[in-house]
Amino acid sequence: MKQVTFTLSATDGKARRGRIDTPRGDIQTPAFMPVGTAGTVKAMYPEQVRETGADILLGNTYHLMLRPGAERVASLGGLHTFMDWERPILTDSGGFQVMSLSQLRKMSERGVTFKSHIDGSTHELTPERSIEIQTLLDSDIIMQLDECIALPAEHKEMERAMELSLRWADRSKTAFNNQANRALFGIVQGGDAPDLRARSAQGLTSIGFDGYAVGGLAVGEPQEVMFRVLDEIVPELPTDRPHYLMGVGKPDDILGAIGRGIDMFDCVHPTRAGRHGHVYTRFGVINLKNARHKDDHRPIDEASPNRNCRRFSRAYLHHLVKTEEILGAMILSQINLAYYQELVQGARTAIESSRFTDFAAETRAAWAAGDLPTL
């Protein structure tokens, strides 16, 4: 009997408050999943990631299958043991990275053959192999293999990729074979075409999945296009299953998507931004590379619940960023991940109190007001 379930506990307009229960722990939604691409959230210890409030991590099938290899991870006890993360892990299918990182690839009905960006070796990824790899990694939430194309694209090309993804979804479901203690999510494709997105959602619903992801966004389209697609497609998804927006995003993207009925998010942005000197706060984003911070003795935010926001001066963090010290990446990644978790926690509380619209407006107003005035 499956032991991954979703419970919807409150709604406020289209915004949803819920919980995904898994044998490795529950996931409060809306949820942000830090990305552990190659078995690590960059510049963070696993316990630090958990302390930010993260209930679940994302692992990357493409990178892990190439190095160190799924069979090797399995022989070493699975990804949770390998990276010392006891809570749930969602793994993507590997399809997006094949499309974006591999310059030499060949698509077919069977799957995709590609050359590794690491050493040029040839690999094949099929729906069945993707499910096998994710199972070897001991993932808790497994994603179907799909084809993700960049936008803008011709309608015919979006239709071809969407229909192929639907056929791969059916094969992924068969390969998954209703494994106990795991969930399988389908991925809605169709670019920015409402008719294709609707057909994809209907096809996936008929196959039947434990959750439904919206893929093919955050691939270069403007935010208004992403929000329009969500407005059109989320109402087509089963309400009793989690809704996951893949690869999104910045805080304003997340707020907007929560208000449109999305429950789960992942993105490399907060840690990548931290490594490049950008820190997310209730005042918006602060670029610590700027010279204005070099003599600023103030902390990032003296009222923040995050100790690192109160502990270090902006001058010191500016120095770490400018000298490219590893500690700078560690501190700023932690601050950013903690802020993302504060954001979704605030959204959860607001939805429970039927004040999500006010919460979103107040949050955006604080971002617009900007940083604390210079002393």
Automatic annotation (TrEMBL):
SUPFAM superfamilies: tRNA-guanine transglycosylase (SSF51713). Homodimer. Within each dimer, one monomer is responsible for RNA recognition and catalysis, while the other monomer binds to the replacement base PreQ1. It comes from the Bacteria. Keywords: Glycosyltransferase, Queuosine biosynthesis, Transferase, tRNA processing. Residues 14-367 form the tRNA-guanine(15) transglycosylase-like domain. Pathway: tRNA modification; tRNA-queuosine biosynthesis. GO terms for biological process: tRNA queuosine(34) biosynthetic process. It catalyses: 7-aminomethyl-7-carbaguanine + guanosine(34) in tRNA = 7-aminomethyl-7-carbaguanosine(34) in tRNA + guanine. InterPro entries: ArchSynthase1/Queuine_TRR (IPR050076), TGT (IPR004803), TGT-like_sf (IPR036511), tRNA_ribo_trans-like (IPR002616). One of its GO terms (cellular component) is cytosol. Belongs to the queuine tRNA-ribosyltransferase family. Catalyzes the base-exchange of a guanine (G) residue with the queuine precursor 7-aminomethyl-7-deazaguanine (PreQ1) at position 34 (anticodon wobble position) in tRNAs with GU(N) anticodons (tRNA-Asp, -Asn, -His and -Tyr). Catalysis occurs through a double-displacement mechanism. The nucleophile active site attacks the C1' of nucleotide 34 to detach the guanine base from the RNA, forming a covalent enzyme-RNA intermediate. The proton acceptor active site deprotonates the incoming PreQ1, allowing a nucleophilic attack on the C1' of the ribose to form the product. Substrate binds at residues 92-96, 146, 189, 216. Residues 247-253, 271-275 are annotated as: RNA binding. HAMAP family: Q_tRNA_Tgt. One of its GO terms (molecular function) is tRNA-guanosine(34) queuine transglycosylase activity. This is Queuine tRNA-ribosyltransferase. The active site is at 92 (proton acceptor), 266 (nucleophile). Its EC number is 2.4.2.29.
